[in-house]
Amino acid sequence: MSHSVSAQNPVTVVITCAIQPAKLDVARGALQAVIAQVMAQEPACRSIRVHESPEAPHRWLIVEQWASQDDFTGPHMQQPHMQAFMQEAKSFLDGEADFGFWRETFAA
User: Fold this and answer.
1) What angle do CA 98, 104, 106 make, to 5 degrees?
2) Per-block mean pLDDT, blocks of 10 residues, the chain (108 long)
3) Gap between the Cα atoms of 85 and 90, Å rounded
4) Burial code of 70-86, b = ≥16 C-beta within 10 A, e = fewer?
């Protein structure tokens, strides 16, 4: 069985964003719900971790592991649950989310 290109090119997606402070609970609930759907329905997603800044809890860092960048930017972003989440996020994000794509070089 041959490996697909995507299986050989895992990517770490790093998302930074700010949440409107008054809407932190709404944002947490929406993110937890969509993460549960992604993990249940999208095998290309290997993990999602959400971090909050200790000094500024409205600043979030989301680290996702995907089989490939194409899996994230293509099928994942077209999923109905992601389309709905992106619309909902407009109500609690403070500005735009920043997306970065990273490849692991080495690990200790």
Assistant:
1) 145
2) 54 98 97 98 98 97 97 96 97 97 92
3) 9
4) ebbeeebeeeebbeebe
